[in-house]
Structures are given as C-alpha cells and as structure tokens.
C-alpha cells in the first residue's frame, strides 16, 4: 500500500509540474501577444493610437476622445472613422495592450451613453511595449555614445557604500538607500550604452560595401574611441570588483536594514502574495549578483569585462577583413560573386539550347573535338599564333581553383641573426673599453688639467660628468657671494667620481684635441668612486 501511495504522490507532483508549466507558457504567450500590433498590416494606425494613450497618465479615453486627439496629430490615424477605430481598440484589448475602463459612466441621454460606455485605458504591458517601440523608431540606427564617465561614478559609489557598511554601528539606512539607488541607475545607463554601441559597431563592421571614406572613419572610431573605452573599463574593473568583495559580507544586513527603514511598495507583496512587485534597482540581492557578474568571473562564466575585450578583438578582426577586401578590390582581385549569381540566374531561366550558347559566350569553353600529345616544353610560340591552334597553356592550381594570382610556395626560413648579434656585442665591448680608458685618463690627469691635453673621449666623459654634477648642485647665497653645495657626479660602472666647487677669482682651462674649455670661478677634481670625496680644502 505504501508503494501505491508513493506512486500516486509522484503522479500528483508530475501533474502539478505539468499544470504549472502550461500556466507559465500561457502567461508568456499572453505577454508576447502585446507585440502583435507592431507586426499587423495596420501597424502605423495602431502605433498612433497607442501614442495617444501613452501621452496620458491614469486616463481612460472613449472613441470620440481618441478621434479628436488623432485628428490633432494629423498622422496615420487621423483618417480613421469611429467604427474602424472601435475595431482597432478591441484588437488592442484582445492582445493585452489596452484594458477596458471600469469607471462609472454618467450620461444625460441614450446617445451620450452609447458614445461613452466603451472607454479604454492603457495597460502596464502595453505602455512598456509602446515605449520600447518608440525608442527603436527614434534611434535604431544611431551610434550611441558610451557613458564611460559613469563608470568612475560607479567606482566612487561602491567605495562609499563599502565604507558605510564597514563603519562601526553600520550604515545609515537613508544614506545607504540614496547611494544604492544612484549607483544602480548609473550602472544601468552605462551597461545599456555599452550594449547599444557594440551592437551598432557589429552592424557596421558586418558590411562589405564600405568605401574608403567610411572605412577611414570607422577605423579611427575603432582604434581611438573603442580602445579608450576598453582601457577605461579594464582600469576600473579590478577596483570595482574589490569594492564589491568588501560590501558582499555586509550585503544581507544592509538590505534588511534598508527594508526596515523604507519598505516602499514591497510591503504590498506581503499582504497580497499573488501580487508581483518589481522593486527599485539595488533593493534585491539579484541586482547585486548581476552587478558582480558584470565585473568578476562567477560560476565558471566569463565576466562582461572579458566579453567586452573579446568583442573589441572581433571588431579589429572585422576591420582587418574589410581592409583586405579593399586592397583586393584596388588590385583588381575583387570578388565576382554578384556577377556569378546573375549568370546563374540566366542559366536557370534558359532553355537547354540557350544554356550551351550562354556557357560559350560567358566562359569561352568548347567541347573537346580532338586528342593530342603534350607539346615540346622548349618550343617557343610566336605571338601571331592563335590560341585555337596553339599549344595548351598550363594554368596554376591557385589561379584555377581560387582565382588568386599571388605566388605561393614554401614558407621562408627563419633568418639567422647570430652574425649581427656578435657584431653588436663586439661594438658594445669596444665602446665600454673606450669609456674605461677615458676614465683612467681623467683620474691620472686630475689636479693638473691645465698641464695635460685630454683625448676626445676623455673630454666628452669629463663634460658629461661636469654637466651632471652642476645639475645635482644646490645653490646657496649669502650677503656677498654664492656657493655650490653637493656638485658631484659618479659613474659606478667606470669607478669614477667628479667633484666641482666654486673658487672666486680663479679660472680653470681644460685642454683637449678638440679644443680648450675655460671654466671661470670653478675648480674640478676627479677621483675614484670608492674613495673619499675631494672637498674644497684639497683645492
């Protein structure tokens, strides 16, 4: 008996699931029926009627009211009569876009009652469908600008919410509600603008009829604007993900605290369980999960940021494909697909006898009427020989099968740069030896620069160190004069250090094969970098 009862329970459960599935399917069908008037033959008249209803709030309109308003618009519905308009309204009621009004009708005559008894008002679903339709009609093909500045505001808002949630005593519910509402409005606007822009970009790059001017404009758009968007999102995404990780442990308590402070229309669902309530964005945990999935990888699915990078890469590939097509067109290798389709249509409509003549005229192909042997490869054919009687010409496989005249063959071998590398290493070694010799020459000539003549490499190294030392110096002024403090420069690789200090009234002459340099009121000394620095007392 227990087995039978359990079987009956399973059957009842399956029936409930089936009934629930049928009910959900019927509800979805009813909701989708609200779009039916947009595909009806009289769609322009239906749209004009729905726009009149969307221009009012909590208003019920009768047929005479609608006729008067449609006549003012002077649109597609202005020519409707009362009988036709009534049929249109009844269809909209059947599709769920309009509702019959339940307001009490007060009439002073039977004629007035007959005119006013049928009143209609807008349903929530119908208003949503018409609003979306107007948005599509207003900017379906327009390039929408991405509101990238909102991403910085989302970053800032999440940082403030995280700080409020982690503060002692918790967040103030009113301030938290304001921050969350603002955050989700900004994020929704940013995400919607990204989707619209990339949909437009994909539509444009899918075209194969771009001319050079259009291609240039879209190339600049893709390389500059899209790159800026991707870089901004890549920069902000890790910071936003970190703020979300900080908020996540405090999120249940934060949402409960906000609900206790401002229940809003959510209390309606508690009193009427059969009523569905759509909370404002950010009040439910599902909204936060959607925000988190946009910036982080959750559940094995890639984030929207990763998908944005992939979409940018695909856009670049499409741009490259268009560039190749334009290059082939410029070199005379443009696809003949359109011509071949026209020729195929001619073949399809031709009679058998006409088809043979068409093939001969189009391709110059004739049936074989003779057998022959291969011609002599060394035989030269004069220019006046007709192709009809001349030898057979060998057609390359690439040209015969793909129509490509680009020569193909084995890939080129990788170039060997070992000799160049050895030459560069030897050149670098010689330069290092020359600088080391110049450093040794400066150390040996220190203190007697006016008595020796330096070589050109030594003079260049001395001037390099002197310029660095004067740049490192600090100027100190007193009542009568000024001093240089810390005028030193060192090269650890060469093991050399230069020290300079000011000596009023003394001039120093540096001689070299390239010329002489006179330094007024300055003394220079060169010593080893590992030894103590030469001070002014050693001058």
From TrEMBL:
InterPro entries: CHP02677
One Pfam family here: DUF2397
Any coiled-coil regions, as ranges: 411-445
Keywords noted in UniProt: Coiled coil
NCBIfam families: TIGR02677 family protein
Protein name: TIGR02677 family protein
Organism: Streptomyces viridochromogenes (strain DSM 40736 / JCM 4977 / BCRC 1201 / Tue 494)
């Amino acid at each position: 008996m227990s087995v039978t009862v359990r079987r009956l329970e399973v059957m009842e459960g399956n029936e409930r699931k089936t009934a629930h599935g049928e009910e959900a399917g019927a509800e979805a069908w009813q909701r989708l029926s609200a779009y039916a008037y947009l595909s009806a033959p009289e769609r322009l008249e239906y749209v004009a009627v729905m726009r009149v209803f969307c221009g009012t709030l909590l208003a019920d309109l009768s047929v005479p009211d609608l006729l008067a308003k449609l006549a003012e618009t002077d649109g597609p519905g202005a020519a409707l009569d009362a009988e036709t308009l009534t049929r249109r309204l009844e269809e909209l009621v059947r599709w769920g876009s309009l509702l019959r009004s339940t307001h009490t009708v007060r009439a002073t005559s039977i004629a007035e009652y007959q005119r006013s008894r049928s009143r209609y008002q807008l349903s929530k679903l119908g208003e949503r469908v018409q609003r979306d339709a107007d948005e599509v009609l207003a900017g379906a093909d327009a390039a929408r600008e991405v509101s990238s500045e909102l991403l910085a505001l989302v970053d800032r808002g999440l940082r403030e919410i995280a700080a409020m949630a982690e503060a002692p005593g918790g967040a103030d519910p009113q301030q938290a509600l304001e921050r969350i509402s603002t955050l989700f409005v900004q994020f929704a606007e940013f995400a919607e603008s990204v989707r619209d822009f990339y949909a437009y970009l994909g539509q444009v790059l899918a075209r194969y009829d771009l001319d050079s001017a259009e291609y240039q404009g879209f190339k600049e758009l893709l390389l500059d604007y899209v790159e800026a968007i991707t870089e901004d999102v890549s920069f902000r995404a890790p910071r936003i993900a970190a703020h979300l990780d900080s908020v996540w442990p405090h999120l249940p308590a934060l949402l409960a605290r906000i609900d206790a402070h401002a229940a809003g229309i959510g209390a309606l669902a508690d009193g009427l369980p059969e009523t569905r309530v759509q909370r404002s964005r950010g009040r439910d945990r599902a909204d936060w999960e959607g925000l988190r999935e946009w910036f982080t990888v959750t559940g094995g699915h890639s984030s929207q940021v990763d998908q944005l990078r992939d979409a940018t890469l695909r856009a670049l590939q499409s741009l490259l494909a268009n560039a190749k097509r334009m290059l082939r067109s410029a070199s005379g290798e443009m696809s003949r697909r359109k011509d071949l389709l026209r020729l195929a249509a001619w073949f399809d409509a031709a009679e058998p006898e006409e088809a043979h003549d068409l093939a001969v005229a189009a391709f110059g192909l004739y049936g074989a009427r003779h057998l022959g042997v291969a011609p002599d490869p060394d035989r030269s054919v004069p220019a006046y020989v007709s192709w009809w009687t001349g030898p057979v010409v060998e057609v390359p496989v690439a040209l015969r099968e793909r129509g490509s005249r680009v020569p193909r063959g084995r890939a080129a071998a990788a170039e060997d740069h070992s000799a160049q590398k050895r030459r560069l290493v030897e050149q670098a070694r010689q330069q290092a030896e020359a600088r080391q010799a110049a450093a040794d020459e400066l150390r040996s000539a220190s203190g007697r620069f006016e008595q020796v003549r330096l070589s050109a490499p030594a003079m260049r190294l001395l001037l390099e160190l002197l310029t660095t030392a004067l740049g490192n110096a600090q100027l100190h002024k007193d009542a009568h004069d000024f001093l240089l403090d810390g005028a030193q420069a060192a090269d650890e690789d060469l093991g050399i250090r230069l020290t300079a200090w000011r000596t009023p009234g003394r001039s120093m002459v540096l001689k070299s094969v390239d010329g002489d340099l006179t330094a007024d009121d300055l003394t220079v000394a060169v010593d080893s970098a590992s030894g103590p620095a030469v001070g002014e007392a050693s001058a």
